Amino acid sequence: MKDFNAEKEVNNIVKFIRDYYKENNLGGAILGISGGKDSGIVAALLVKALGRENVIGVTMPCHSQNEDKTDAKLVSDYYGFKLINFDLTSTYDIFKEELKKLGNFNETELKDSDINIKPRLRMLTLYYLAAMYSKIYHKTYIVAGTSNKCELYVGYFTKGGDSVSDISPIADYTVDEVIEIGKYLNVPKKVLYKTPSDGLSGMSDEEKLGVTYKDIASYMNNPLSVEIETRNKIKHMHEVNLHKFNTPTFSR
What we know:
Layout: H1 6-23, E1 28-32, H2 37-50, E2 55-59, H3 66-79, E3 82-85, H4 89-99, H5 107-137, E4 141-143, H6 149-153, H7 175-184, H8 189-192, H9 205-209, H10 213-221, H11 228-240
Parallel strand pairs: 1-2, 1-4, 2-3
Helix pairs in contact: 1-2, 1-7, 2-3, 2-7
């Protein structure tokens, strides 16, 4: 990390955002604020690039921890952008009630579907609000993604959920690099060093993955730098999730 220049990278990202907005005649950005470092850092970058008046953050609790909403407010208060709350708990519950009409399913059968519907509901909400605020404020809002390079490499995202965005400022940075960017941008420490989690499953990211983000970053740099068991796990996750990146299209 000694060769990583956070100031230079921030300037490059800010230029990238500004150039894209100018080229496409865009006006604002909307993003989900989870209370974690990735969304906090992306919000900070957007405020720096576009101005706080052009950034809208959204908290979208869905049987979530109250701490996440509190930490999201820490970020919005510090950077001064608008933060709205859109509670998805009852929407999720209604969906689950409708599902009962299809049959009686056990928890094991529903576990992955239950986890994945929540980020999909969140993305639906962000795109709805982006279109709504575009009409209200007479400028085009787009949805900003908050995934980092380590998450993307192993496919730790929901297809049709947090994989969907219109601009992705930190997708080429590892977790450690993202933290360095966050330190430079003065992201509140409680948020910057918070244990990464999806805020939905009750587990940390690394507990769900079975490997650390540091190991993923090391593997991407040199697969032989991590122990063979960890290496095989990362390789397997990367390979089985490749389908998330491409939609096979038949060409005549």
